[in-house]
Amino acid sequence: MAEADYAPLFQHGPDRTDYERLGDGGVVRERWRGRDWLIVPRETLADLAAEAFARSAHLLRPSHLAQLRAILDDPDSGDNDRSVARALLHNAVIAAAGALPLCQDTGTAVVIGEKGEQVLTGGEDVAAFSDGIARTYATRNLRFSQLAPLSLYEERNTGSNLPAQIEIAAGPGSDYRLLFVAKGGGSANKTFLFQQNTALLSPERLRAFLAEKVATLGAAACPPYHLALVIGGLSAEQTLKTVKLANCRALDNLPESGDASGRAFRDRALEAEVLAITRELGIGAQFGGKYFCHDVRVIRLPRHAGSLPVGLGVSCSADRQTAAKITAEGVFLERLEAHPERFLPELDECVAPAVPIDLTQPMEGIRRQLATLPVGTRLSLTGPLVVARDKAHAALSERLAAGGTLPDYLRDHPVYYAGPAKTPDGMVSGAFGPTTASRMDGYMETFLAAGVWPISLGKGNRSAAVADACARHGGFYLGTIGGAAAAIARDHIRSVETLDMEELGMEAVRRIEVVDLPAFLVIDDKGRDFYRDRAPTAA
Ligand code: SF4
Asked: Which pLDDT belongs to residue 538?
């Protein structure tokens, strides 16, 4: 290709990030062969990564908090949207104190960088960033979530939250630009690739396709979401990487029209249309309403004539990404909001009262009470819960299949799908929000048939098979607010003890005592499903 034909694919406009200068970072500028070179100590990279992940575990962007506040200020918001927005703002205030992180899933650490060719670091950038990430996850009340495969089937927690996903590209100049992202598993699981073709490129077909796919996202990744759609891409990988960057709002300043070079652009008209679609889904901010999404980004990319990849993804209520840069002026990190209380109105809102559920009564009594309530009923749970998630379910399922005796805790108490972060000194519990319930769907028929955990508590929607199993065996599924893990820990958990499988770390089986834990009746023993009935197209 002639040089004149080349144009950058991503033509970023000016960087409008509000940065805070952390210091000089020991950065030295030297002039050699007529050019300025930036010499950056290895430790500066480690310190920057450590600081970025420490801050983003506790602090959110002011723009994200303003969007939560806008839900409270919108006269058209329903009670459920408001109560979730208020809970998330309250959670942000608790997390900002620096002890409990925003969410119990403190994420996979992702570092995306562009390093100017005149930046000299010694070449161990990935190791340096990893050192900083490991330091933060070890010394703060975060959670180790990464599993190392020891063989095809055996896994062990790495105990450091490493490995991190670190991708550094080369660029011109003498600046180092970075984006640090802490991505939770539930949020990452809502990234999708659809291999389409030219037939999709008509306004009606594209709208219908997007409406169908957006509805399938469901509520498991803790809405309200920042939603990103990418149409086109030179490869599947490029499409999905672009989804990730758009979710981080790192492509907000792209041009708003295409040109013959194939440059990427934002389509604001389609963004508005898709946002309107999300408002009609009925899922809302987790339990019905219109605030399924805060906003939508649509990016159009060039493509091969024979393929049309379409990418879809979300950033969840733990909207954790922090831009940074290292220049001759020093080390800079995006300013996050240290005082989220300024977004939270002082007066308590009026929301519909919750039905108190006494979990200290025998299981039959709890089931009888739940059976009298319509799905969508607000609940307030007080008493013991057993905590278990993926690995405990797999182990118990094997015990059940082998005909082994099962412990009483499987039948006496409801199960809460969760895995906490570390407990801060002087506190009863680490951040302790719900995990995605649908990952346990495959066990439900067998467990319910065996009388195991007839009541479950988690987040998000579940498969039709779970509703059917609940109808057959008298089961119930309750949802609690996802993304409010610091508030759940501080305001609603009174004790935590390990019951079984301690070796599983954050996935161990625990017994907790809760007080006034907010919940919703999502699926009842007649097979009625709050999400399916409100949003028939949502899976
Ligand atoms: S807010 Fe929800 S989806 Fe996001 S990291 Fe936390 S649990 Fe996962």
From this structure: 37
